[in-house]
Amino acid sequence: MKKNKYMLDGRGFSSQRELSVYCGVHEKTIAARLRHGLSLQEACKKEDKRDTYYVMNGERKSLKEICRCYGQDKELVRNRLAYGYSIEEAVSLPKKVSRQGNPLMVNGMWYPSLSAALRNFGLEAHESAIRYHMKRGRNPDDVFSGFNKFENKGGNV
After folding, report:
1. Contacts by 49-56 with C-beta closer than 8 Å and gap 24+?
2. Domains held by the chain: number
3. By C-alpha distance, which of 22, 4, 26, 24 is closest to 13?
4. Of 37, 20, 40, which Cα lies nearest the Cα of 28?
5. What residue numbers bound the domain in which 133 lies?
6. Region 34-45: what's the mean pLDDT?
7. Which of these ranges, 2-11, 40-49, 127-136, 147-156, has the smallest mean pLDDT?
């Protein structure tokens, strides 16, 4: 008669192989979990111990499952959790989209930034001079038209 070495759910198992077949977890996984001090019930659970689990809406889910349900990026949520957000806040808050530069209107046309306007007018070479005038409060239309006139005459700044 076989000696039952492991007892799980009221059933006896003589080897880790029999136990692994019953619970659906690889026997090496069970052995490693037992070596690390987990109880037999915890060692036989069919969940990835490398992932972190959270309780949301009364359900225990992995971070990967939660992000998939809410359509969020896993790294974004992980970073928010590291900064102290609750799991609900980390998942529900919209992703911030950072904008570079301030919108600018030149000659009745909106540009997302001064750099975009400079590229459109072909005035990248004069960027520092144009920024200088813009910081001094000059109207963008006047600044750009002045440099366009200067460019058309073939001069250099």
Report:
1. 54/87, 56/87, 56/88, 56/91
2. 3
3. 4
4. 20
5. 104-152
6. 86
7. 147-156
Does any domain span residue 97? no
Q: Which three-class secondary structure state does DSSP give residue 71? A: coil
What per-residue confidence (pLDDT) applies to 157? 41
- Are 112 and 144 found together in one domain? yes
Beta pairing, strands 11-13 & 53-56? unpaired
Q: Is the model's pLDDT at 44 over the cut of 60?
A: yes
Report, as an integer, the average pLDDT of 16-22.
87
Burial class (CB in 10 A: 0-12, 13-18, 19+), 31: middle
36 plus 13 within the same structural domain:
yes
* Euclidean distance between CA atoms 154 and 134, whole angstroms: 23
pTM assigned to the model:
0.42
The residue written with tokens 């920024």 in the block is 131
Answer yes or no: is 10 within a domain: yes
Task: Count Cβ atoms below 10 Å from residue 33 Cβ, excluding itself.
Answer: 18
* Minimum mean pLDDT range among 77-81, 107-111, 126-130, 151-155: 151-155
Which residue intervals of 38-126 are DSSP H helices? 40-43, 63-70, 74-82, 87-92, 114-121
Q: What is the Cα–Cα distance from 75 to 117, expressed in whole angstroms?
A: 34
